[in-house]
Each structure stands twice: as C-alpha cells, then as structure tokens.
Amino acid sequence: MPQAERVALVTGGSKGIGRAIAAALLDTGTHVLITGRGTAALSSAADDLAPRGQRTGARVEWFAGDVRQETDAYAMVGAVVQRFGALDILVNNAAVGILVEVADMTVAQWRETIETNLSGVFYCTHAAIPHLRARGGGWIINVSSLASRNPFARGAAYSATKAGLNAFGEALMQELRYDGIRVSTVCPGSVRTGFAGSDAGAAADWKLAPEDVAQVVVDLIAHPGRSLPSHVDIRPSRPPRNVLLPLLGIAFNDVLPEPDSAPMPLVSSCNSSMLPLSVMYPTPEAAPMKY
Ligand SMILES: NC(=O)c1ccc[n+]([C@@H]2O[C@H](COP(=O)([O-])OP(=O)(O)OC[C@H]3O[C@@H](n4cnc5c(N)ncnc54)[C@H](OP(=O)(O)O)[C@@H]3O)[C@@H](O)[C@H]2O)c1
What we know:
Elements: E1 7-10, H1 16-27, E2 31-36, H2 39-54, E3 60-64, H3 70-84, E4 89-92, H4 107-134, E5 138-143, H5 156-176, E6 181-188, H6 210-222, E7 231-234, H7 252-255, H8 266-269, H9 275-280
Parallel strand pairs: 1-2, 1-4, 2-3, 4-5, 5-6, 6-7
Bound molecules: NADP nicotinamide-adenine-dinucleotide phosphate.
C-alpha cells in the first residue's frame, strides 16, 4: 500500500506524545485525524501541525470526543473514514494518570482511569477493526507504559490499566495478525510532557522527548511485513543516577514512579516493597512464549 494513501487516527493527539506521533506521521505523508476532549487544544494543534503535512501532501484534521463514551469512539472512527475515505492506522494513545493511594481514591477517579485507559482502547479498537479489515490490513499501536510492569505507590489504578493494556494488545495481536493487522504495544519510560501534572520544563531534560516515542511508531509502521515487533520498551538513555540503585544493577527509571512527578523520596524507592517487585516478578518478556 503506498504510504501517501495511508490514513491514521491518533487518540489524545492534541498534546504531548499523541501530537508528536501525529507530526511524525504527517512527515511520512500519512493523513491524520487527531482527537481529544478539548476543542481549543485540538484546533490549535491541528493549525500548528498543518504545515508538516503540506510538505508531504498529507492533511491533518481534528475531532472532539471522549474515548470513555462508546458512541464518541465510534464517531471518531466514522469521522476519519468519512473525511479521508479509509483507516489504516489506529494509535490508542489517550490516557489519564490519576496518582492517588487506593485508600484515598474515589470511585469516580478509579472509573475515570479504567474507562479512559482501558475501555476507551476497547471502544476505539472495536470500531476500527472492520475498517482495517476492509483495507486488507493495517496497524493498531497501543501506547502503554513501563509503569505497566513497575507498579508504584499511588499508581495502582494507572499501572493496572497499563498492565491490562499490555495483555489486551498481546491477545489482540494474535487475533488480528492473519488479517494483516499488526498490533504493537509501546511502553515508554518517563516522557517530557505535562501528563499527570508532570514537569515538562528544564528539570525534565533527562526524560524521553515525545518525538522519541513518535519515532518508534513510525519505525513500527515502516517495519518489513515478514516480522512483527509486537512490544517495544523505550526509556531514557541517561536518567539521573541514584546512589544505591546502580550498585544493585537496577536502572533509576525502571523503579521510580512514572511519570516521575509523583513525590517519592529516593530512599523509599529502595524499600522492601519496590525492589522485590522489580526483581522477583517475571516480566512478559521473561515468560515463555507459547505461540
Ligand atoms: N508522559 C509520560 O511520562 C508517559 C510515560 C509512559 C507512557 N505515557 C503514555 O503516553 C500516552 C500519552 O501521554 P502524554 O504524556 O502525551 O499525556 P498528555 O500530554 O496529558 O496528553 C494526553 C492526551 O489524551 C487526551 N485525553 C485524555 N483523556 C481523554 C479522554 N477521555 N478522551 C479523549 N482524549 C483524552 C488529552 O486531551 P484532552 O485532555 O483534551 O481530552 C491529550 O490529548 C498515555 O497513554 C500515557 O499513559 C506517558
């Protein structure tokens, strides 16, 4: 399929990583529909992104909707097909990070996290599959997090949704690969965005840039069809050093809460609850592949 004909839907494309993914896709000549709830942010992002597409002949449009609402998810997918005539790439990127201890978390906060980060992915994916099948193939790229495998205090709901997303994506990959639909899960470490109230300023220079994650998405789409990179971890090359963790052979970013704005003293990152979690529980990669 010629790249110029490709069409992508990027949920949560008004800011941060989603916006960078939209920009990178426009650079490849892919038409992009960005979505989110805030119309002002969407409209301004689309205006800023439009010149990127003009260079490659690709158009960017926006559509306001809440992925927690099944009807909105179907409307987003309907809008991309109606405006561009097809759908080839779904990037499930929209998510929230509500970092609160379980004891203090309200039912509304729990539901918002689950419904955005997990149910929203299901709704968008469910709506997209018939269109991807109609094209004879495509891509579904789920933006998860290293927090899916490194749970941390105040991140129970967030980490649970991202762990669930990893499982959802792996099962989905097995269901759709014979249709030529390639499902990949991308797990970034800390990224320099305003996610969950994170610091995106100079103090966050060590973090990944949103463009680093966008590069992974573009690389996944360009990857030769014979093999399928179904899971990619990406983390900062040189996170700040911690006095104790490197001695134990554990990278700072592997165990600190992500996003790292969650106030947690370094000492507690070495406490008995976190190190065994990192060391003892097998990661999905460590588990035997059965297919
Ligand atoms: N930043 C990090 O350190 C980091 C690390 C690992 C993984 N991630 C993952 O990367 C993804 C993007 O994060 P980010 O850092 O770019 O966050 P961000 O800057 O806060 O952007 C989040 C985007 O999602 C949209 N969104 C949130 N709730 C939504 C809803 N219910 N319906 C539709 N859109 C919604 C937001 O727009 P509206 O608010 O206007 O709806 C916004 O466009 C997330 O999946 C996150 O879990 C982030």
